[in-house]
Amino acid sequence: MKTLFFCPLWGMENLGMAEAAKRVKAAGYDGMEISAGQDKRNEAVQITHDHGLELILMAFGGGSNFSEHKKKYQDDLLDIARYKPLFINAHTGHDYFTFEQNVELIQIAIAVEKQTGVRILHETHRGRFSYSAPAIQSYLLKVPELRLTADYSHWVNVAESYLSDQMENVNRAITVSDHIHCRVGHPEGPQVNDPRAPEWKDALESHAKWWDAIRDRFQKANAPTLTVTCEFGPAGYLPTIPFTQQPVASQWDINVFMKDYLKKRWAV
């Protein structure tokens, strides 16, 4: 089984897409995960192609109410699918939408996937329908076709724990998680300041065991490919020093570390 490692454009927007892609390729990544507006999607496709990189595109809803969000979400998915990315990573719904409204959005994604042939995965994320391990269980039961991008760092933050008391919920999510965001969270935040620091050894290992379980599932299924995005965020997500707002560590270096850490852990 091949493991493909992706780098987010997030945090490198100031470089421009071409320079970012060049840097990503040189660092040994296999692709990029990009949130691109309608006016930037052609560029994202062309530049990643020119640099021999795979492409994951992201989708978001919008609008001030459910009706506006629903239309924006559907239009976004249909437009992004035209560019034939490897798949779409979707930020779907809101935690304040009703269960029925969020299910409607998930069903729209399923319909778009069937119509276009482009896979759509739903990221586990604060503020979305998937904001916590227990909250997602009803959706998994209601919509068995639901597939996830596993960013369990958000769940750790929401639960203020490493989820040891709700492993049944996590394990159910693992069975339908088809893409990994290898960010390390902690009980008081969605991102540790530097996963290389010894004080975060247990946090890193907690997350890595979940990623191992997803990988094991893929291997047992003889899946050809597993995809991983090293998605530690920039300053703001990354803690900063008061007054100067300088990040306490390098986002780029941390993400490269995560790629190399998993390559070594999995011997790929």
Keywords:
single chain; alpha/beta; globular; 8-stranded parallel β-barrel; 268 residues
Report what the structure shows.
With 268 residues, the protein is an alpha/beta fold. The chain contains nine helices and eight strands. It has an eight-stranded parallel beta barrel, surrounded by five helices. Helix 3 packs parallel to helix 4. The chain is globular, with a radius of gyration of 18 Å. The model has no long low-confidence stretch (mean pLDDT 97).
SS field, number of helical segments: 9
Derived from helix and strand composition plus strand pairing, the structural class reads: alpha/beta
Which spans have pLDDT < 50 for at least 5 consecutive residues? none
Indicate the radius of gyration in whole angstroms: 18 Å
Topology:
Blueprint: E1 2-8, H1 17-26, E2 31-34, H2 41-50, E3 54-60, H3 66-81, E4 88-91, H4 99-116, E5 120-123, H5 137-142, E6 148-150, H6 153-159, H7 167-174, E7 177-181, H8 201-220, E8 225-229, H9 251-266
Parallel strand pairs: 1-2, 1-8, 2-3, 3-4, 4-5, 5-6, 6-7, 7-8
Helix pairs in contact: 3-4
